[in-house]
Design a protein that fits this description.
Heme binds at residue 480. Pfam families: p450. InterPro entries: Cyt_P450, Cyt_P450_E_grp-I, Cyt_P450_sf, Cytochrome_P450_monoxygenase. This protein has helices at residues 3-8, 11-47, 67-70, 77-84, 107-116, 125-135, 144-154, 160-165, 167-182, 196-213, 227-236, 240-251, 254-257, 265-292, 308-315, 320-350, 353-366, 379-382, 386-398, 430-434, 437-440, 483-500, and strands spanning 90-94, 100-104, 121-123, 192-195, 405-409, 413-415, 418-420, 425-428, 453-454, 457-458, 501-505, 514-515, 521-522, 527-532. The chain is of the alpha+beta class and 536 residues long. The protein has a domain at 156-185 and 194-402 and 436-532: Orthogonal Bundle (Cytochrome p450). Strands 1-2-8-5-3 form a 5-stranded mixed beta sheet.
Length: 536
């Protein structure tokens, strides 16, 4: 029956039809209400296998405690719960609509989830949905046997030896960054106001381009709002519209979110992710064709070693589409994570003149000026300089690139005395772990590079009693395979920049709160004043 036909029915018939509709809808509405009451209040209180765990405060709305997952790192809810709720390794939280969740708080529980039973868990589906937009179905997103297979394929490219071979590349790009910055100064004594976050993105993109694909994107010699660096910056830029779209994507089907005509984010994301996917596929196909034609020997790429993509083309049976997924993962994760760490290192140094001067003295005493020598400092030297490594590791501790992640149980798993059911979540608030006074003392939230130095040598643990006190790269089979790459790259970049320049905050520290959709960076883009310090 059409709307017009319905309108032409006699009024008695219309009333009768309305009564039938109401009679049909009332039981449905009652069922929805009863189910909601059961799911949100009755099941969690009386039937959940986690009901005897200590509960985080609040969580009585249909949203439960879930909004704590989406707050900025300056929202200390998760830190406060871990610190103040008495517990024996787990705190109970309520997911949306009463779902089971626990916040892991002890090394024993973290070891169970991340190491011993790691493949009983997957990343949260909604997190994977968002990550897939910018990472493709590469190592970070895939799960289970596919993840095991991909990790085995890539393991050789990220071992200690291959990473050491990349230090000359890291140093070369670091010195190119120095030259690019120098061109912005009218004279060596100038104090220049620089949006340093953009420079960090450009240099790390250039590094991953050569290391992973044998391609120099040359972003440092292009305007920051153009080319690949500009596209990434636009894709990951934070504003109110994007933040709402990002949040809505966790709770609604993506086709609904993308068709709500009140924000530009879906269109921007679709346009830019399509371009990145096309570029990734083009890179993969071109490299396969070049190797087949003998134009690029897979044994020796531009770094003097096989770049990652050449090795994958030669040594695996991955299709072009599968290679493209890995390319997209390397592109995004390979530059966004280190660019985030680098800008936080510089912002931290800009607030501590004493540490900055001591670091500069250490660098100049051990490393030749790039103005006098093109030779890269040995990897073994950079890996052992105590204050340089203290600064880098303290930055990675205080400012984890991804401050929160979660795991969803795909198999019922015993966690301590409690059985986490299938679908239950384990929340992993990395930011809170890394700043816990329980592990790091009362100055846990302070930038103290010297905690990583014992008797004049780098100590690799910061004085913490457990390796689970530092969760930036996670642990176990799902740990970040590129952590050695990121640390080596960060060492070279910090050494070059701190050796040449003095940094100051360009604005009050209140203008530098952490924010981000995928990675966390200063809100004002890392605006810094810099000037050349003569003598290196």
């Amino acid at each position: 029956m059409t709307g017009a036909q319905l309108f032409l029915l006699p009024s008695e018939s219309q009333a009768s039809l309305a009564r039938h509709v109401v009679r049909a809808l009332v039981p449905f509405a009652i069922s929805c209400i009863l189910y909601s009451l059961w799911q949100i209040y009755v099941y969690p209180a009386f039937f959940s296998p986690l009901r005897h765990l200590p509960m985080a405060p609040g969580g009585y709305s249909p949203m439960g405690h879930s909004m704590a997952k989406f707050g900025t790192p300056t929202d200390t809810s998760l830190e406060d719960w871990i610190r103040n709720v008495p517990n024996d390794g787990m705190i109970r939280a309520k997911e949306v609509f009463g779902g089971d969740a626990v916040i892991a708080t002890s090394p024993a529980i973290l070891k169970r989830v991340l190491v011993e039973d790691s493949y009983n868990f997957t990343k949260d589906d909604n997190i994977r949905k968002i990550l897939r937009l910018v990472l493709g179905d590469g190592l970070i997103v895939v799960e289970g046997d596919v993840h095991k297979s991909q990790k085995q394929i890539l393991r050789g490219s990220f071992g200690t030896g291959p990473i050491k071979d990349l230090y000359p590349l890291f140093w070369q790009k670091s010195t190119i960054l120095l030259t690019a910055l120098q061109s912005k100064l009218s004279s060596p004594s100038d104090l220049k106001r620089v949006p340093f976050g953009r420079w960090c993105e450009q240099v790390t993109l250039d590094i991953i381009g050569v290391a992973a694909f044998g391609i120099d994107f040359d972003s440092l010699n292009k305007p920051s709002d153009t080319g690949l660096a500009g596209e990434y910056h636009e894709l990951l830029r934070v504003d109110t519209s994007r933040a709402i779209w990002f949040l809505a994507s966790f709770f609604l089907p993506q086709w609904i979110v993308n068709n709500i005509p009140i924000w530009e984010a879906p269109g921007v994301a679709d346009r830019l992710t399509r371009k990145l996917n096309e570029l990734s596929l083009e890179i993969a196909q071109n490299r396969r064709a070049e190797i087949k034609a003998g134009a690029v020997p897979a044994e020796a790429g531009p770094t003097g070693r096989a770049d990652v993509l050449s090795g994958l083309v030669k040594n695996t049976t991955l299709s072009d589409a599968q290679l493209a997924d890995q390319v997209l993962t390397f592109l995004t994760a390979g530059h966004e994570t280190t660019s985030s760490a680098l800008i936080w290192a510089l912002v931290s140094l800009a607030q501590d003149d004493d540490v900055q001067q001591r670091l500069r003295d250490e660098i100049r005493a051990n490393i030749s000026s790039p103005s006098e020598s093109d030779e890269a400092p040995p990897a073994a030297l950079l890996d052992k300089l105590p204050l340089l490594n203290g600064v880098c590791h303290e930055t990675l501790r205080l400012f984890p690139t991804v401050p929160f992640t979660a795991r969803t149980a795909v198999k019922a798993t015993q966690l301590g005395e409690f059985l986490l059911p299938v679908g239950g979540q384990v929340w992993l608030p990395v930011w809170a772990y890394n700043r816990s006074p329980h592990y790091w003392g009362q100055n846990a939230s302070k930038f103290v590079p010297d905690r990583w130095i014992t008797d004049g040598s780098f100590n690799n643990n910061g004085g913490a009693p457990s390796n689970y006190a530092q969760m930036t790269f996670l642990h176990g089979p799902r740990h970040c395979i590129g952590q050695g790459f990121a640390k080596g790259e960060l060492r070279c970049l910090v050494a070059a920049l701190a050796g040449r320049y003095h940094f100051e905050l360009a604005e009050d520290i209140s203008k530098y709160p952490p924010e981000g959709l995928v990675t966390v960076k200063p809100q004002n883009g890392g605006l810094l004043n810099l000037r050349v310090v003569k003598g290196w």
